[in-house]
Amino acid sequence: MSIPKLIISYxxxxxxxxxxxxxxxxxxxxxxxxxxxxxxx
Length: 41
What we know:
This protein is an all-alpha fold. The chain has one domain (3-37). Helices cover 83% and strands 0% of the residues. It has 2 helices and no strands. The protein is rod-shaped.
């Protein structure tokens, strides 16, 4: 695999995982963290 393709693959993977993480933190686990950690009160 060439270096430019490797860099593009790395960047796209980073963006996908960032998006998944934001969905998890922002929508799915928000109430879980609020309930068990009291971070938002």
